[in-house]
Amino acid sequence: MEQEHKKPSCPIVGQNGNIFNLIGLASRTLRQNGMTAEAKEMQNRIMGGDCHSYEEALGIISEYVETELSGSIPTKNKNKEDHTHER
Residue 62's closest CA among 30, 84, 85, 31? Predict the structure, then answer.
């Protein structure tokens, strides 16, 4: 995030766990708190091709909004992880 704002609260436990639904909930929460640029940035980070898992997406969401999961999901290391399997 460019500017540090207090993260708005966005409860996601008990919601439809579809990642697109969770992105929508977090984006709406950010926009309602005057953080439209952050909502767009979060969406771009998740859907821009660098996010490769549901857990990674949840970690990114938790960087922008305070969820029940904030702090419990490790954020992606800036170094690319090797996802190749040994044969």
Answer: 30
Residue carrying structure tokens 């996802």: 83
Question: What is the average pLDDT score of the chain?
Answer: 83
Beta bridge partners of 66: 9
Per-residue pLDDT, 13: 84
Residues 3, 4, 9: CA angle, nearest 5 degrees: 125
CA–CA separation, 49 and 83 (whole Å): 15
Coil/strand/helix, residue 9: strand
Distance separating the N- and C-terminal Cα atoms of the chain:
39
Contact between 56 and 76 (Cβ < 8 Å): yes
Write the pLDDT tens digit of every residue in 54-77. 999 999 999 999 998 776 655 554
